[in-house]
Amino acid sequence: MNSIQQIRDQFPILQRRVYDRQLVYLDNTATSQTPRSVVDAIESVYFNTKANVHRGVHTLSQEATDLQESTRRHVARYINAPSAEQIIFTRGTTEAINLVASSYGSMFENGDEIILTVMEHHANIVPWQLLQRTKRLSIKVLPINERGELRLDLLPSLITERTRFIAVTHVSNVLGTINPIKEIIALAHRHQIPVLVDGAQASPHLTIDVQDLDADFYVFSAHKMYGPTGVGVLYGRRSLLQMMPPYQGGGEMIEHVSFERTTFAALPFKFEAGTPDFVGIAAFDKALDFIENIGIEQIAAHEQQLLQYATERMMEIPGMRIFGIAPHKSAVISFLIGNAHHYDTGMLLDKLGIAVRTGHHCAQPLMTALGIEGTVRASFAIYNTTQEVDQFITALNRIAPMLNN
Ligand code: PLP
Question: How far does the centroid of ligand 1 lie from the alpha carbon of residue 255, in Å?
């Protein structure tokens, strides 16, 4: 494995100074930073091969199409999908979930039920609520225990003969909890219920094997995986994708158009209307290379070390409250210091060069369940170091007395 310094050298932004201090970037859950190889790939497409995909016979168009389709095959390998046709490019996790809710959800009937969990990101709540504008659907919610783990024991009692769908996050963006997705899917499948897994926080940190999980839908975003913004992935079970109506209409997604009758393209293009972000998609290939060159297990092991070290040191700080203490968790630490407002803590940390996220983290129902308005969240990636954790702890120790007064 490369040394962490060699890895850091690939990220020019990590050299930045903020308020005349070395930046410590601990907002990786919101978006990760991008290595030079990915940005070089973007430049290379713009300067060498930019042409619209799937439309031209000319060389540039064919090269641009090859780059896009090669990333599709790479993504399929990355998550062990049975075929590249089951990989649909979207703008991100949010669009992928909206696609499934809108398209698969159009087949729901009045009186049907879907199950979500209380720790879902708004991206996995609101698209399902939008369906309720046109259909009488009920949404049931699986709660969590005091450690921030799903109450799996309650799941069977939420399932009825009207349950049509379960949508659940693989890893919580607030609590860090890694959910027992395989078990949830197995239980759902015993009742013939399909499951969508929101993998936005899992794909940068865990090995994803959609066949082993037996997931029906698995979605994630490139920008959280050291990749470009504007690119996301929807993996779907072939039989389900085939039966689903198109999500958006336009170019690229048709077979034949007339004013009387239009027929649609085969998978995956049926779901990819319009010009995709083919530049970003080409660059995403390099982000996957970046992860694979280090190895996802090595990335996870490094982040787990940082998580454990940071958690231990934080617990020494008077008044520290950590939300999410599942033994099986990803490198995300949500916290509050005493009764201090999360925003004040985040602002003071920023003045010391430390970038953390504050607020409800697009998980307001979870905040309500925890009885708080928001948290401060520190989250780690492969390029973070123990020294950065030390800087973070020093900063917390410095600001805690001010906040607790
Ligand atoms: N789901 C989870 C668990 C997330 O953490 C996020 C983003 O933070 C999203 C969905 C939405 O991702 P995007 O904004 O890339 O669509």
Answer: 32
Tens-place pLDDT, residues 207-236: 999 999 999 999 999 999 999 999 999 999
> How is domain 4-27+295-404 classified at the CATH fold level?
Aspartate Aminotransferase, domain 1 (3.90.1150)
**From 18, 126, 294, 362, the catalytic residue:** 362
Same fold, 4-27+295-404 and 39-292: no
Active site residue 362: yes
- Write the class of the CATH domain 39-292: alpha beta
**Distance (Å, rounded) from C-alpha 164 to C-alpha 181?**
17
CB of 201 closer than 6 A to ligand 1? Answer: yes
330 pocket-lining for ligand 1 (C-beta < 6 Å) = no
What percent helix, strand, coil does the chain show, rounded to 5?
45, 20, 40
Spatial distance between the Cα atoms of 144 and 232, rounded to a whole number of angstroms: 28
C-alpha to C-alpha distances, 317 to 28, 300, 311, 322, nearest whole angstrom: 23, 26, 10, 11
- pLDDT at 252 (0 to 100): 87
Q: Where do the domains of the chain lie?
A: 4-27+295-404, 39-292
